[in-house]
Amino acid sequence: MPDATGLELIAQRVGEQVGDDAVAGTVYYREQATLDVAPARVREVLEYLRDRDPDPWPLLMSLHGVDYLPEEPRLGVHYQLLSTERLDRLGVRTRVGVDDPKLPSVVEVFPTADHQEREVFDMFGVEFAGHPDLRRILMPEDYEGFPQRRDFPMGGEPVLFTFNEHELPRWYD
Amino acid sequence: MTDPEPVVHSEPEEPITGTRLTPVEEIEPETELFTVNIGPQHPATHGVLRLFCTLEGEVVRDVKPLVGYVHTGIEKSCEDHQYWKAITFVERMDYLAYYFNSLAFCMAVERLLEEEVPPRAQYLRVAHLELNRIASHLFWLGTAILDIGAISPIFYALRDRERCLDLFEMSGGQRLHTRYFQVGGVIEDIPPGWDGAVRRFSREFSTRIEQMEDLLDKNEIFLSRAKNTGIVSEERLLALGVTGPLLRATGNPWDLRKAIPYSSYDHFDFKIPVGTTGDNYDRYRVRIAELRESLKLVEQALDGMPEGPWISTNRKVALPPRHELATSMEALIHHFKLVTEGFRVPPGEAYAAIESPRGELGCYVLADGSAKPARVHMRDPSFVNLQAVPDMARGGLVADLIASVAFLDPILGGIDR
Amino acid sequence: MDVKRQRLGTGDLRIQKLRAQQLLRGEIEDEELQRQVEERLVFTTLEKAQNWARKNALWPLGYGTACCAIEMITTAAGPRADLSRFGAEVVRASPRQADMLILSGRLSVKWAQVARRLYDQMLEPKWVISMGACASSAGMFNNYALIAGADKFMPIDVYVPGCPPRPEALIYGVLKLQDKIAKDPDLGWRKQYNAEGTEEGA
């Protein structure tokens, strides 16, 4: 784990090399470092971190989405980077709103993002521009709605107890 | 027996990966490509994996894996249940490596809570994890070799797996999905006969591994199907995020147990087996060697088992032992609060990664201060490893595709979650 | 208590064979015939014989979705709990050749139509065991992604609860199914599910 000062140095380097508007903040919590990045610059930041940073991060381990419902912007996408040389992990995070959930795809930088971006699209509705084949991966192709958003209902059947079993219709009625 | 040399296609459009191709002149002129759908219910897929193959004759030109047939919404269900209840959901993801799923989740929550796991619990966790690795690799061995066509090894593998499951039943109460790992340690101490039972098992297991190897090592059919098939280069695997035995078969010794040790793995002495070429045969050899290493780890964990509590003594997180409920009022209140509401985790996010039998299994937990997690995401190794299938299969025969998928060890519960 | 051991029947196999030949040719009469018939012949109806043959030769389909599939493979192919002692030895890959479908594993929204197609492709007579909690009801996954129980779209004969059920539990379920086949394989309730004559013509 880069410690808190290491994280600040990384944020500073990213800000200098990629652009001032790239870094939106840093979070260092429970000894895990997360770099907040502006949505439009994600791909450049990851490219910089993989290739040009003096401490490069060559592997993307996980790409996942989060819905921070009461806070805006709601949808977050996390990129979990790993360096096998320094045995270090770094998290990169962007936030997009539900109204305009568009992010650049990082498939060309890290090919492992292929299925994982499709999963984020399927579950949260974040569209990745430049992805070769962005369609649903886990739900049926014609499914409507994005299940893992917090305002999507849990679904399922109501449990039958004796107090409500007469109100709920059964399949043989 | 000489290995058949890989013969190269005369005009490769891209670097050849799966190489068992006959030269162009020997293939009948089959200019049309036809698509064959393998699965989702098929005896040769590990779970409900659907492969959309584009074939030219018998040669695979493209493969698209289609998944989602067993998507259970586990991650969404976890948001509706307390942390200790979410452990049962998360366990059922990668259904052969259940202890690993629950450990990743428990480690993420323990990091958020800044909870210390007592040393006895850590050693118990290691013992159970390595036994589970043995059980998982045995099942993989049986079914992968069954996919290739050898029917006997699955019986031997299942026979030994039954003995592993007996050990789990003795300690945890159930054969599968035991809910043994809890946040802060393990749910219960091992019963008195467990130690002896595990040692009995480990005494006989090394000969069993040799029996299995005797069946397969010099088997010509197995060798010709497994050698030089499904080769993907190490850089491509790293770019695709593939970890675990597939990466180790290419020679890269990346193993989280040694690299970033967790749960006192650094107290033990074990080796990381690596292969050389990265073909299916090397993957098989790596997993067999891992069986032996796991056996050593189990024995070392039992030998060095420290005394002490088996779960964290922090009553705000772990249930108090039942005998205290009769005497202490606070224990009763803690028990009540923990069972009905659950412990609260301060807001924050954490990512914890461990080495499961298939690769890096990571768990991301977002806590919002309540007793239920706001988001649980498991970075499943099979989901990411599956992206290597098109590279493995392109340019090879259909039979090699089947062998590659078998030796990839995908678990569809983890892929689809 | 005095235990007396006595050999049943007439003893030597050659004598039995000779007697059976004489019986078939009609050469024995009266009390010998009576005794021979009591010892050697079983009277039954054709349906009972047919049911007996069917129940002792159930061919399961090689089907499995999730964790219950692991236990099903352990039961069917495992050396400890071995389903083939009860006749279900031949696990067929093709639904056209199988007559028992053990629904092991979770039934997601995408998979339900596949499961129904598999059921349709099986030929009559066919039976379904719903193994585990996830196939009988949604199990613990009461959410958007699962169909809450296969009996929403498929007739089920036996439900085996458990998460996952032990191999012994699954064997008990198969034995119950065998009892059901022996007594009455079709109680007319398949009509209610609109499941009669649902074979799919390829």
Based on the model shown, name its key terms:
heterotrimer, A: 173 residues, alpha/beta, Beta Polymerase, domain 2, two-stranded parallel sheet, 7 strands, C: 202 residues, mainly alpha, Rossmann fold, 2 domains, three-stranded parallel sheet, 8 helices, 3 strands, 41% helix, elongated
- Name of the CATH first level of the largest domain in chain C: Alpha Beta
- Briefly note the structural class of the backbone of chain B: alpha+beta
The strand line-up of the biggest sheet of chain B is 1-2-3
Oligomer status: heterotrimer
What does it look like?
The complex is a heterotrimer of chains A (173), B (417) and C (202). Chain A is α/β, with parallel strands linked by helices. Chain A is 22% helix and 27% strand. In chain A, β6 (102-104), α3 (113-124) and β7 (127-129) form a beta-alpha-beta unit. The longest helix of chain A has 15 residues, at 4-18. The radius of gyration of chain A is 20 Å and the shape is elongated. The termini of chain A are far apart. The mean pLDDT of chain A is 85. Chain B has a single domain, classed as Cytochrome-c3 Hydrogenase, chain B (Orthogonal Bundle). Chain B is 45% helix and 11% strand. A three-stranded antiparallel beta sheet of chain B has the order 1-2-3. In chain B, strands 6-7-8 form a three-stranded antiparallel beta sheet. Chain B has a two-stranded antiparallel ribbon with strand order 4-5. In chain B, α3 runs antiparallel to α4 (119-148), α4 runs antiparallel to α5 (152-172) and α4 packs antiparallel against α15 (398-408). The longest helix of chain B is centred in the first third of the chain and has 30 residues, at 119-148. Chain C folds into two domains: 13-41, no CATH class; 53-192, 3-Layer(aba) Sandwich (Rossmann fold), CATH 3.40.50.12280. Chain C is built from eight helices and three strands. Chain C has helices spanning 13-25, 30-40, 46-55, 67-77, 109-121, 133-136, 167-183, 189-192; strands at 100-104, 127-131, 158-160. Chain C has a three-stranded parallel beta sheet. In chain C, α3 packs antiparallel against α7 and α4 (67-77) crosses α7.
